[in-house]
Amino acid sequence: MYKEYWRLKERPFENNPDPRFLFHSREHDEALMRMLYAIQSLKGAALLTGEYGCGKTLLMNTIVNELSTGQFEIAYLGHPEKVITY
User: Fold this and answer.
1) Cα 16 from chain centroid?
2) CB within 8 Å of 2: residues ≥ 6 apart
3) DSSP labels for 16-70?
């Protein structure tokens, strides 16, 4: 309904956050930079926290997309009951 009303080409609010729609705010870019630094520098662990709906899952999907084509094997624990590997 809203897609036609606003003349959108695709639905922006799907169940899985799409990295193409990441808004690069200063805070999101800093979190992205820090997480990528921790991963690429083999720091061992990093923790991303934030309020509900602030973009943590979208940010992690962005990181997975960026790193999945390189030297890293990624296991994403989005839901504790299932493991998704890339």
Assistant:
1) 10
2) 8
3) SPPGGG----HHHHHHHHHHHHHHHTT-S-------TTSSHHHHHHHHHHHHTTT
Ramachandran assignment for 44, one of left (phi > 0), alpha (psi -120 to 50 degrees), beta (any other):
left
Tokens (6 digits) for 81: 């009951």
**Six-digit token string for 64:** 């997975």
Please state the domain extents for the chain: 24-85
Tokens of 65: 């997309």
Q: What is the pTM of this model?
A: 0.75
Distance CA 5, CA 27 (A): 31
At 68-86, the pLDDT tens digits run 887 888 877 766 676 666 6
